[in-house]
Amino acid sequence: MSIILETKGLNRSFGAVIAAKDINVQISLGEVVGVIGSNGAGKTTFINMVTGYLPPSSGEILFEHQSILGKAPRQITRMGMARSFQVAQLFPELSVLDNLIAALVAAESPRPSFLRPTRTPIRIAKAEDILEEFGIPHLRDALVSAVPQGARKLIDIAMALIGNPRMLLLDEPTSGVSVEEKFSLMDTVMAAVRHHGVTVLFVEHDMEIVERYVSRILAFYSGEIIADGPPAAVMADQKVRELVIGHHAPQGGVRKRSAGQ
Amino acid sequence: MKLDKTQGALLAVTVALAAAGFAAPYWLTFLLMLALAKGLVVQGVVIQMRTGLVSFGQGLFFCIGGYGVGVASNLMGCTDAFVQLGLAVVVSLAVAAVLGLLMTRYRDIFFAMLSLALSMILFGVLVKNQALGSTDGFNVAAQTYLGWAPGPHQQKLVSYLLTVVIAGIAAQLIYLYMHSGVGQISEAIRENEIRVEYLGLSPRWLIYGNYLVAAAISAVGGALTAFATGHIDPEMAFWTTSGEFVFIALLGGITHVAAPFVAAVLFAVVRTYALEFTPNTWQLILGVVLLAIIIFLPKGLWSLIQRDKRAKA
Amino acid sequence: MTTLIAILIDGLTYSSWLFLVAAGLTIIYGVMRILNMAHGSFYAIGAYCGASLVGWYFTGAEGSPYWSYLLLVLAAVASGLLVGLVIEQGLLRFLYRQNEILMVIVTYALLLILEDVTKLVFGVDPYFTYQPYSLLGRTEISGLAFSNYDLMLVAVSVVVGAVAWAVLNRTHKGKLLRAVIHDREISVAMGVNVRAMFAATFVVGSVLGALAGALTAPAISVSPGIGVEVIVLAFAVVVVGGLGSIEGAIVGSLMVGLSRAAAVHLAPEIELFVIYGVMSLVLAVRPQGLFGRALARKI
């Protein structure tokens, strides 16, 4: 299977703090990879480096076999790798539709037009389609600042997805979302992702969610990857149990799962 | 090509203003001409405000425009209005192209203060320059239009019409710009610059583009002001001048393309009366009104009109 | 060689003046995140009050002329205290949650208001009170004559700098202030009376601004507009040093002051550009200023 993203010996330190140590990862086309680890383990640092926001101290990053070291985030996005954010990064005073149209305009060309209108029938249709996919078509004209948290996360991801990337990195897609909504949100997201045929890597704290959707897990601790493999193996791994999951069962007990929205 | 409501309205107003020029008394066309020219500079300020940047030194380009006309007319002997306008635009773009490389690296207060500093540098340079008249500046000869020299009575009307036409065209173009890719994404930059970067665009180059456009429009405003008053001086680059542009921009708000022009006219009218009655407290009044706008009407006077519209609907 | 001495001493006197002007500005920004454009007005008001008081003293009273120095300081403290308190309590404290650029516009409005108020109160004719300046005489260094008043200002700025540094770094209140500079929200959460600190800081800043004006008054002709020239310079210094840092203001003043002195003696045409040139250079290499803090990660 062809490899879409590869890091070799990736390191990053901030003074005495080692945020990433010798990260070697190979993501194959079509995989759905979960990234777990306690806070400060280096997961977001990894995403920030891979998307060009943070330069690594040393190491190599290859996207579709091309080095992306030193490239700016906008260049990497144009190459086909998009991301969503732990705290949804949206345009608060614009409508949801305009947020998505902005993403479309950006995806279409690095030099947007000075005079031609953004709101064209084609773009509006595409934006409405993705809103439909994400289950929030009713929020079309709402001002983003008035939109609830779960929907904000969805819009954040939709904006990354509407540009048709080949790989999507999701940084804690369910963070800040209430427990009852997490599953339906991930169901929606993963359905959309599968529909667009995108390779996905997402960071997540909730083990039940990770287990449900991924074919492979990367476990981070203190800047290093301590386990890398199929969910069952990683979850059973001694070090992972000790340093990431904890010895007790992950959020056990009876829990009501909302059967979709 | 179909025109939407706003475009139609703008066109109608442009035509009306032009027609009015034939019937209106001189003092009115003079006031309107100056106000529209000022409004053009304010459009430049507003274009940058939409990206979240406040230019406290737009007077720099306003002054370049004015002095462009003066230099062409008095030192180069060229009185053609179109050449003078062209020169104003070319010089301002050249200066903006260089300064923009520095300015676009900064945001918020740094951008604001740097823009102020740059315009004050021009002021200082002009004041020290005897050849250009130092603090007094100098008078500018009347314009000719492609070889035709209007008579003394026609002169004022022709420059008024030119201003109205330019303002009208500018309004139409800016309206299109506001709804275009660059215009919308510029507003997105104000809201969240990092996201714009991650969407695949360079906020810095977009801001640079806006900076250039704003410079050119402001220079045109300066040139037209020189046409109207027949005089230029370093005061055009002084901080108080730039402050007035910011004031008018906040007065009108950044949401509607006509707002800078309307606010500029309102400002001109109020100022004429204020200077008549209380000549020593003009800045005071400006300051107090500015505070009032910020505290009570953060979206500018235009928000009053919008509010009413929504109430009616 | 004489030129070098001239540059050094002129640079030093100019730097000390710059520091006095910029100290208040940087403290207010550091603690309150407000770039006070009206700082120039405090300077002007201090200058006018100082010049008026001293002028009155020399036209009537028969005491020793050396009292005029005390009067200058008193005028500064009184005017800075009054104006600072009125503005902070009457306007600013209602706007603390606004964003930075809006606050700049607010202080800009204040500048407009205070410019006219100053003109109304003091008139538009210039004030000359040269007596405190010439009283101290001159010193000859290497064949060049330097005013002792200017040299005294250097001493004053050193004292002010030392006191400011000591308060910020060696006192309990200073530590609290530095905490607020670092993170306002956490300080509030920790129970620091941030409101009181803001009021105190603003008043200290305005007094410092007025002091700079009052002490400069004997050396210049006090007239409308001196405030605005000053704010642009002060900003350049503060930006070079890093907003909110006293050490930065010291280093910034020295860099700008010495560069300007060099320009004045060697290439006077570029005097204006030199100051902004230095500012641009520093910002190009270190956008947060020499002693400024880099911003934390946002995403």
Describe the structure.
The complex is a heterotrimer of chains A (261), B (313) and C (299). Chain A is of the alpha/beta class. Chain A is built from nine helices and ten strands. Chain A has a single domain, classed as 3-Layer(aba) Sandwich (Rossmann fold). Helix content of chain A is 36%, strand content 24%. In chain A, strands 6-7-8-3-9-10 form a six-stranded mixed β-sheet, sandwiched between helices. In chain A, α3 runs parallel beside α5 (149-161) and α5 (149-161) packs parallel to α6. Chain A is globular. Chain B has 313 residues and is mostly helical. Chain B is 75% helix and 1% strand. Chain B is built from 13 helices and two strands. The longest helix of chain B has 27 residues, at 152-178. The two termini of chain B are 29 Å apart. Chain C is mainly α. Chain C has one domain (2-285): ABC transporter involved in vitamin B12 uptake, BtuC (Orthogonal Bundle), CATH 1.10.3470. In chain C, 73% of the residues lie in helices and 3% in strands. In chain C, strands 1-2 form a two-stranded antiparallel ribbon. In chain C, a hairpin with a 2-residue loop joins β1 (138-141) and β2 (144-147). The chains are: A alpha/beta (261), B mainly alpha (313), C mainly alpha (299). Chains in contact: A-B, A-C, B-C. The A-C interface holds A 48, 53, 85-87, 89 and C 297, 299.
Short précis:
Chain B is mostly helical and 313 residues long. Chain B contains 13 helices and two strands. Chains in contact: A-B, A-C, B-C.
Please indicate the percent range of residues of chain A in DSSP E strands (runs of 2 or more).
Answer: 15-25%
CATH topology of chain A: Rossmann fold
* Low-confidence parts of chain C: none
What's the tally of helices of chain C?
Answer: 12
CATH architecture of chain A: 3-Layer(aba) Sandwich
Head-to-tail CA distance between termini of chain C: 55 Å
Shape of chain A: globular
User: How many structurally independent domains of chain A?
Assistant: 1
Sketch the topology of chain A as an H/E string, one letter per element.
Answer: EEEHEEHEHHHEHEHEEHH
CATH topology of chain C: ABC transporter involved in vitamin B12 uptake, BtuC
Write out the strand line-up for the largest beta sheet of chain A, numbering strands in chain order.
Answer: 6-7-8-3-9-10
- How is the biggest beta sheet of chain A arranged? 6 strands, mixed
Number of strands of chain A: 10
Largest interface (CB within 8 Å) is between: B-C, 36 and 36 residues
Oligomer: heterotrimer
Number of helices of chain A: 9
Low-confidence stretches of chain A: 252-261
